[in-house]
Specification:
Blueprint (H helix, E strand, L loop, with lengths): L8 H40 L3 H48 L5 H15 L10 H27 L4 H35 L30
């Protein structure tokens, strides 16, 4: 039986060379692909990672948001206290200026003291965001206008009857303007309360909507935050 012979040795050598070259090519390609992937990931991480300035800005914004949320809560509490002080005075002024009787000087002095106390929380306001500052400034402006109405009432108490009617008319108009300013500020306060997650907070005066003052929406208290 004849001995089985294989391929000539020179053919084996060439085949081995081609095989080794192929393996080296595959290995090199794999290394290149791995290095490319690692470099791509590193570059992506470096590009996506915020630098020190961006991180600082983000931290400042976060602190401002927390501080503003706390200011809004405090402003709502202040607005409720001040409303309970101012509302009875404005309602009484409306009654007194339409009653046709002479103003009471003692009553005027009591109202002036109430207005002084109502203005105290706004004497040294903190600095907040623009939206919060607008709400606070509106409330303060309403108190100042109410104080002018009380001062006009006090002046009417000390003038002759012939001049009294004109002063009482000014008093009534100033009181109505104070209520309107308060309603605008209360609307702004309601909005920033919702935006900060506190929900609707309707710190409005009990006014006649036909007099031009804004009124609360129909949302329930505390909802919508």
């Amino acid at each position: 039986m004849a001995r089985r012979t294989g391929r000539p040795s020179y053919q084996l050598d060439k085949a081995d060379v081609r095989h080794r070259r192929t393996m080296r090519f595959v290995a090199a390609a794999g290394v290149i692909a791995l290095v490319t992937a690692l470099l791509g990931g590193l570059i992506g991480y470096q590009l996506g990672r915020p630098d020190a300035t961006e991180a600082t800005i983000a931290s400042i914004k976060q602190d401002e948001a927390k501080r503003d949320a706390q200011q809004i809560v405090e402003l709502i509490e202040t607005a409720r206290r001040v409303r309970d002080q101012v509302a009875p005075v404005l309602a009484a002024i409306k009654t007194e200026t339409t009653a046709g009787r002479a103003p009471d000087p003692a009553q005027a002095r009591r109202w002036q003291e109430v207005m002084r106390q109502a203005a105290e929380p706004f004497a040294d306001p903190p600095s907040g965001t623009t939206a919060t500052n607008v709400a606070r400034g509106g409330l303060r402006g309403a108190v100042q206008q109410a104080s002018l109405a009380v001062d006009a009432y006090a002046l009417a108490a000390g003038v002759p009857a012939a001049q009294r009617a004109a002063l009482l008319d000014v008093t009534a108009r100033q009181a109505a303007e104070a209520a309107t300013i308060w309603s605008v500020a209360a609307t702004q306060l309601d909005q920033i309360s919702v935006d900060s997650g506190q929900g609707h907070q309707h710190v409005f005066l009990d006014t006649d909507p036909h007099e031009g003052a804004l009124t609360p929406d129909g949302a329930a208290e505390g909802t919508g935050g």
